[in-house]
Amino acid sequence: LEPSPQNIAFSILFGLGIHSLIPFSLELFFIPISYFTIYIFIFFLTIFLLYTSKLNLKEIFTLFKNRIRFPNHFILLLIPLFILVGLSIWRAFYFPPFAVDITSGAEAVSMYTLKEKTLINTVFDVYQNGNTLKPAFLTSLQVIYKLAGFPFGQIWLSQIVICFLVILAAEMKKTINSIIVIFLLILFLAIPEMYAYTYSLLYDYPNLIYFTSFLIYLNRFIQTQNKHNLYLSSIWLGFATYIRPETILLGVMLATVSILLFI
Question: In angstroms, how far apart are the furthest CA atoms of the chain?
Answer without folding.
Answer: 59
